[in-house]
Amino acid sequence: MKDKPESRPVSLSRGRRLGAFVFLAPGLAYLAVLLLVPLGLVLSYTVLQRGRFGGVVYEFTTENFTRLFDSLYLRVLLDSLQIAGLATLIALLLGYPTAYLIAQLPRKWKTIALVAIVLPFWTNFIIRVYAWIILLSPEGLINGWLQAFGFGPYELLYNRGAIVLGLLYSYLPLMVLPLYAAIEKLDPQLREASANLGASAFTTFRKVTLPLTLPGAITGSLFVFVPSFGNFVIPEMLGGGKSNMVGNLIRSEFLSARDWPFGSTLALALIAVLLVLLVLQAWVTRRA
Amino acid sequence: MFLYAPIVVLVVMSFNSGRSAYTFEGFSLEWYGELAGDERVMGGLVNTLIVAGGSTVIATVLGTMLAVGLARHSRSKVLDALAFMPAVLPDLVLAIGLLLFYGLIQLTLGLYSAVLAHALFSMAFVAAVVRTRLSGADSSLEEASRDLGAGPVTTFMRITLPQLAPGVIAGALLAFTLSLDEFVIAYFTIGNTEQTLPIVIYSMIRFGVTPKINALAAILLLVSFTAVIAGQRLTKIGERVPRAQD
Fold first, then answer.
1. Most confident of the following: B72-76, B185-189, B212-216
2. What are chain A's domains?
3. Which ipTM score applies to this complex?
4. Are B155 and B92 spatial neighbours (Cβ–Cβ below 8 Å)?
């Protein structure tokens, strides 16, 4: 490689193109085959018919969509939105003060606190949900305590509240982290300036801190809402057979009813909702 | 806080000597013993390790290459987004897409299909981790190497990779941990003959609750905790080394 000085730019750019190919090609090929193709399949199956023994018949149909707009399925979508939305809201209300407090801690404690918040998240997802079953069940611990004080056993498990609780518990760390990052970045001088100009603590919070941390709050909310909305494990384990979310439906369509086209249509609805939220998020953050 | 209460309960109950998973009756290790003898659990453990190991290898290699390619050789934001997409999409969507795909190419579901599936989303995370490290790292050494005439691959092997090593290791650890715990995608892509540990646990819980599950849970918690703390230590060590060379 004895290039003269004048030809170095050429070798650099050729090197760059070669490098791009060598480094990017394998990964991108993998992604194309295992990500883009399956997604395309899901999309295309929405307009195909189900085969008699599962699988697909290659005939065009829109009946999946008409079926989707049946009030039964719309109800499920709405319920899912509600449950996921509630979990996200509570996560926001709980997460913001937590993130704020952590940001105020002295340096050494910050890392410890952050690790403490994230640690449960790294444990097995199903086990964490299982722990709640133990706590909430009619023979479980919480009811045991309550009964010791004379309060009758409550139906804490297998209802919508339990699902919200489970979702909240599973994804709260995802809310705290982006919020913390946003709060951490705040320039304390801005708050001082606001106070110097005569604003009360509350007003300062409302007009300075809140708007500036809004992007972090939105990111956190999205991080909680997305997995909550498409979840099926938590509704199934904590909700009993009663509450159904979109995730449960999709799963039963694919694994029990083997109606792949309709399952794909449901999945498409799921993605559509999420896309709308993403667009909203981008729009709001651009304005802020 | 409230995050830890359920975990504590689980661990305590795993030592319960009575049959019930709910009320504490006495101290005993018998459930741990039963675990070791349970074929399904042990089989699930082995499978989980195989899937996690295999997918981590693939994910680390491809993910690192992607990260380098994206950070140093490409300016496309579309590619950036594409590389990160598996991590952003809901796992359910990935799972059913893969199920359809495997059905189309008539691939029998089993450990291989699960490994490939896990590698898919792990790759995105590895790429993200390595990417962060790359953007913080000093590229002047790389530029010097290229000015001296080395090709991009040589530059990578000799200069970039050693610099990136802690990040790559952290990414690999992340990929491994993610795969160990992963339920949804494994559930859809592994078929009916084999199971990974999360799937075993899931079935056990659906059939009925016994303290054996608590014992299993406690062990898994211990493993996860150790892995996380180890990961933390590694990234801290990694961050100190480049500065020490100045």
1. B185-189
2. 5-60 (no CATH), 67-287 (1.10.3720.10)
3. 0.71
4. no
